[in-house]
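Tokens help. One example:
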Amino acid sequence: DWMHDDESETETGQVRGKTSITLDRKNEIGVWGAASIMDAEDQNGETVESVDQVNLFYRYLFDSDWDVTGWVGWRSDPSSVAVGINTYRPINDYWAGIFGAYYAPDGDTWNVYSGLVRHWGQRATQDYLGQDRHQPYLPVADNTSMTQFTNH
């Protein structure tokens, strides 16, 4: 992931990865993480970079096609535990709503997001985890997966 910030005139980058195992058609456990690979100095001479993190997750698919993922993990600088939740809820065969949030008590960092996803080919609903929904395994980076911080 790469981010250019016009306000602070910085560019940062990270590498993300995710792996999991589906226990059955409805349950999945795994790990996801991110590592900063590019930091920058802002106009004040402070270093801006993304948070390194490792997280364990559990995902459950309800019979209504709604899936919920809960995760807990470690984040760098300040070293902190973080907890989060992500949800995916099909509205019909083409549209789905997403929602997520996380909180890291040390440093008091948090994020809440929501969105609308359009699927092509009537793929928004799923009968089992891992079913092809024409969507990447890793979603687009957001403030949860690419939290920025400044070293003073």
In short: The chain has a mean pLDDT of 87.
